[in-house]
Amino acid sequence: MAASGKVDDSPPGFSPSGVARLRRPVPAGSVVALRNLLNECFPHAPAFAEGRLITGLSFLDRTIGGGLPKGAITELISPQVSAGSASLIHALIQSESGTAVPAVGQTGILSAVGRTRCGEPALIDSGGETPSFPRDKMPVPRPVALIDGRDSFDPQPLGNACLRHLLWVRCNKAFEAIKAADLLLRDGNFPLVIVDLVLNPPEELRKIPQTSWYRLQRLVEPTSVACLVLTRQSMVGSAQLKIVLENLWTLETFEKDNAISRLQFRIQRSHLGRDIALRCPDGAARRPYRAIAS
């Protein structure tokens, strides 16, 4: 990151001398010579991390082929005002922290209290605590970094058991969120980094150059980190996977049993298409997917 506070969009291993060498004339048709010159200028090409980060949310994992891809950016587009993106963030944090993902709408466990974001009901355990797994079946907690682009996240429904594994970066501008993502992806110690830009104004997001997104992709590639970026409209050109959240939730939605599992996703674009096709039964990745709890 530059001393001026701006995000350094130059690729890892970049040097002016390397660019100067790259400008040397290459004989026409000499592909081998060009390949050797590129290897000389950029000797440390990042290797893509393999595997998936299993979120523990079966309705999401089944849709995208087994989990969020590691070493890649996934963009989740939430075009509707109340599509369930805030509830999905809460569920991801709960799952990664090793506490139970609540059965939203189940009588006696959860109730809709207040609202988060723009009219989306906030979820809270009626007893004031987050339900948890039995100790002998509790998953190993994994830290989560949430970069809150508009300082809109409500931590109160999660409870202390979840929050002790959460790094919450509170931002007011999208550019601050990009700088925070740059730092955390360099660090590489968080298996899941969530960048929430859903409530940031469109004119603010349009000022983010595509080079910044490709810079973040280059940073995450050699790691085992899964980076999830939530936006109101498609804007992350470097995203390896783009998912559209197709819901319009109301208070009546939360009166249904296990409402969170009824989130509907559509794969808009995937550079991992073959992998998803192999993992998703009946070509689920090629059509809107509605996961219903069994």
What does this structure look like?
The chain has helices spanning 16-22, 31-41, 58-61, 85-97, 160-163, 174-187, 202-205, 210-220, 273-279, and strands spanning 52-53, 68-69, 72-77, 110-116, 120-125, 144-148, 166-170, 192-196, 226-231, 241-245, 264-270, 289-290. It is built from nine helices and twelve strands. With 294 residues, it is of the alpha/beta class. Helix content is 26%, strand content 20%. Residues 44-49, 102-138 and 273-294 have low confidence and may be disordered. The termini are far apart.
What attributes does this structure have?
294 residues; alpha/beta; 2 domains; eight-stranded mixed sheet; 12 strands; 20% strand
Strand order of the largest sheet: 7-6-8-9-3-10-11-12
State the secondary-structure class. alpha/beta
Question: Quick one: biggest sheet?
Answer: 8 strands, mixed
CATH fold topology of the largest domain: Rossmann fold
Give the helix proportion (percent range). 25-40%
Instruction: Count every beta strand, where a strand is a DSSP E run of 2 or more residues.
Output: 12
CATH architecture group name of the largest domain? 3-Layer(aba) Sandwich
* N→C terminal distance: 48 Å
Number of helices: 9
Mean pLDDT: 74
- The count of domains is 2
Radius of gyration: 21 Å
β-strand percent reads 15-25%
| Unreliable stretches | 44-49, 102-138, 273-294
Shape: globular
The arrangement of helices and strands along the chain is HHEHEEHEEEHEHEHHEEEHE
CATH class call of the largest domain: Alpha Beta
CATH homologous superfamily descriptor of the largest domain? P-loop containing nucleotide triphosphate hydrolases
